[in-house]
Amino acid sequence: MSTEPLRFDTKIAVLLRADLEPWQRLNVTAFLVSGLGATLPEVVGEPYEDADGVAYLPMFRQPVLVFEGTKETLKAAHDRALSRALPRALFTADLFSTGNDRDNRAAVRAVPTAELDVVGLSFYGPRNAVDKVLKGARMHP
């Protein structure tokens, strides 16, 4: 078995607006990455099993890097992700006031792209493309 660090040519990243409350950051992150795992099977690894043979669900095959930025940083990242056609998920401020999946989708559908109040984004793609989308963001503390 190799002891070399495993390097991925792709990146999974979450970008959160810096002014979110701690509970909002966790909630938004969970929602955002669920879309990637459900849509892109290549990001999901094999199921886990402990020494007693108890099975656990598979998880992402690579780390999820979490970043933060200003409202302007998220707007720019959203625009860059769209122009690069990267797989992405978004969470808008409106979703904090809805209580179910149907209302969440309706809240996003009701707002033109340029007017979305984005508080979180997730991306997946080649490392260099994701890095360019995240320009101006910093690692979450």
Please provide a brief summary of the model.
By secondary structure, the chain is α+β, with helices and mostly antiparallel strands. Helices cover 34% and strands 24% of the residues.
Architecture overview:
The chain is an alpha+beta fold. Helix content is 34%, strand content 24%. The protein has helices at residues 22-39, 71-84, 101-109, 127-133, and strands at residues 10-17, 48-49, 55-56, 64-69, 88-92, 118-126, 138-139. A five-stranded mixed β-sheet has the order 5-6-1-4-7, with helices on both faces. Strands 2-3 form a two-stranded antiparallel sheet.
Topology:
Layout: E1 10-17, H1 22-39, E2 48-49, E3 55-56, E4 64-69, H2 71-84, E5 88-92, H3 101-109, E6 118-126, H4 127-133, E7 138-139
Parallel strand pairs: 1-4
Antiparallel strand pairs: 1-6, 2-3, 4-7, 5-6
Mean pLDDT rating? 93
Structural class: alpha+beta
Proportion of helical residues: 25-40%
Work out the oligomeric state of the chains in this entry: single chain
Number of helices: 4
| Largest sheet, strands/sense/barrel | 5 strands, mixed
CA-to-CA gap between the ends? 33 Å
Q: Give the overall shape.
A: globular
Task: Note the main attributes of this structure.
141 residues; alpha+beta; 5-stranded mixed beta sheet; two-stranded antiparallel sheet; 34% helix; 24% strand
